[in-house]
Design brief:
203 residues, mainly alpha
């Protein structure tokens, strides 16, 4: 079977949590002997680094606004990791040129990352922190479930990933007005503080 569905799904998942993808694939390849997992991901040092970074993202993803800073930093990292995983899978399966696989993995990761980042910015406009925790846990559970499912049923998992990507983009579009209103209110509050500050000092 072609490796395209698995590469696409891993790219989609990498755009949300690339460290979880590396950790899950590596563990399943090493201990469950799952087919299609590159041997490089099963190395102990790779698993250790992925585990530490996954824990970091797990914690940071629950903190309002800090999660958006983390996402901004990973705008370059997640697509690169998605491309690297795709290239490794192409080499493992001997079914696709590595350059094409890297483009699929990296491009899908970038699209998913942008959708995720937009959604989380929208969630951050909520005044309570519970929504951040729920959104982050939903991301973690969805990525884990889809990645595991992809190793067993690559094509159905790729279809699910594609649907979730489309839904994510649609959600960003729906949240766009809410995000713009939140930024306008923030700019207005800053302008008011700058105006009232000198007036209060003069009084």
């Amino acid at each position: 079977m072609s490796a395209v569905p698995l590469i696409f799904t891993s790219g989609w998942a990498s755009g949300i949590n690339s460290y979880a993808v590396v950790l899950l694939l590596g563990l399943l390849g090493r201990y469950a002997h799952s087919a299609g997992v590159p041997a490089a991901l099963e190395r102990t040092d790779v698993l250790a680094v992925a585990a530490v970074l996954f824990i970091g993202q797990f914690v940071i993803g629950k903190i309002p606004y800090v999660d958006s800073v983390w996402d901004a930093v990973h705008t370059f990292i997640r697509p690169v990791m998605g491309a690297a995983i795709g290239a490794l899978m192409a080499g493992q399966a001997h079914s696709l040129p590595q350059a094409l696989a890297a483009a699929i993995g990296g491009g899908t990761a970038l699209a998913t990352h942008l959708a995720k980042t937009g959604v989380r910015v929208g969630v951050n406009t909520s005044p309570e922190p519970v929504s951040n925790v729920i959104a982050s846990l939903a991301e973690d559970l969805t990525v884990s479930g889809v990645v595991v499912f992809a190793l067993l049923h690559p094509l159905p998992a790729a279809i699910i990933a594609a649907v979730l990507l489309v839904l994510g983009i649609a959600l960003v579009i729906m949240l766009a007005k809410r995000i713009r209103r939140a930024w306008r209110r923030r700019r207005q509050r800053r302008a008011q503080r700058r105006t009232t500050g000198p007036a209060a000092a003069a009084a």
